[in-house]
Every structure is written in structure tokens, then in C-alpha cells.
# Entry
Amino acid sequence: MGLISGPRAHRPVVPVVVMTLALGASAFAASAALAVAASAGVATPSSVLSAAKAAIAKQTGGHLTVTVKTSSSASSEKIVADLGTTSGLETISEGKATVTLRLTPAYGYISGDSAGLTTIFGLTSAQARKIGKDWVSLKAGTSQYSGLKADATISSVAGVLPAVKGTKLSTETVKGVKRYVLTWTSAATSSTPKLSDKLILAAAVATLPIEEIATGKGVAQETIKLTKWGERVVVSAPPAHSTIAYSKI
# Structure
């Protein structure tokens, strides 16, 4: 198991987030137009998803929290991330295992406890001991850096959006505010059970995701919450003396 493929393959329910979206005023205009149409009572799953993709592409940053609890054990997984356009900060914990990711435009950095480096990232015990409390550095332009960037930047949020086919649309009003509700079923795979999914989005000019909930056999509940849209994400590199190049482990 590779250093970067590890966490993405390990997450039992969280979608693989590798979608790239175009940024710009045209995307925002499309979002606004679709939202106006939706407010006129002609919203469809296709129009809502298109508006959401355009709205996400407009954002400079956001905060993501994922919690996964299984019905078969007391263990749980949690991911907390601040995602920018070229920078990001993410912490992944599973039981007592923890790893932290930092992404800057020049390098990506990974640190964690021994359990996190081995069970979440798939390193050997010898590699984890060599790293210790230091940070593994991944240089921009490498495949390892690209894998980290795909997870730790705002474009990854588009991974919560379902395909149009098989998705149903309804609306709800919470505290006087209208919201879109998309529901669909995800087929079982070799690593995940069949899931029933619900995604709640703002029914406004910026049709942005608010919360996704997934349930299935063996999965008590997975919840993805998205907040702080438009936040400015600034990530600093760890001290140079506490980093070790990935090629040297």
C-alpha cells in the first residue's frame, strides 16, 4: 500500500475525491442562473448538481468534518480539514491512530503516531520508527504530492456530489430557510456495503453542500459536514530540521 493511496483506500465510506473543476466568473454566473430557475419551481437533480459544482468551484476555501461510526464496534473514524485552493490542513484519526497532513504550494507534509503511519498510511513499522515525530516531505510535481493535493484542496469537495442518474430531489424548510435534499443509493463494492445517501444543500445563489449522511449494513452512520465556505486557508511548513524526504524512508 502506498503512502498516499493508503488513506483514500482505507476510508470505508468517504468518496474518493479527485475531481477538478474550472474556476471563474462564468461558473458563478451559471450557478446563479440555475438557482434562479430552481427558485421558480423548475429545479431538477441535474440543475441542482450543476449549480453545486459551479458554486464549489467558486470557493476559495472551506471546512470539512467527516465522522464514521460502525455498528460492529466502538471504533470510529474522524477527518477534520481546512481546504484551500492550493493549501490544506487535514487530520485523520481512527481509534487511537492519528495522522496529520499539511499541504503548501511547494511541498506536502505528513506526520503521525506509529499506529497512524502504519494502519492509515500503510507504512512498515521500520519506516514509522525512522520517521518518529518528524514530518515526511513530498515535493510538488511528484505523484505522491499530487495524491495529497487531490485530497487536501477545495476541489475535492465535489466528490460528495452524486451522479444525476438515480438521484431524487426534494426540498425542506429549516427555520424558514429552504434547502435542497438529494437522495440516492450507492451500490456495494468489495470494500463498502450498499449505502443510502442523503445530501443537503443550500437553496440559494450559491448552491453549496451543507451535510451528507450515509447509512448501510455495518455502518451506523457516516456524516460529512461542510462549513466556513470562502475561508482563507494558510498553511505553514514545519521546521526544516524536522522533515525527512519521502525518498529517504
Notes: Residues 5-227+237-248 form a domain with the outer membrane lipoprotein receptor (LolB), chain A fold (CATH 2.50.20).
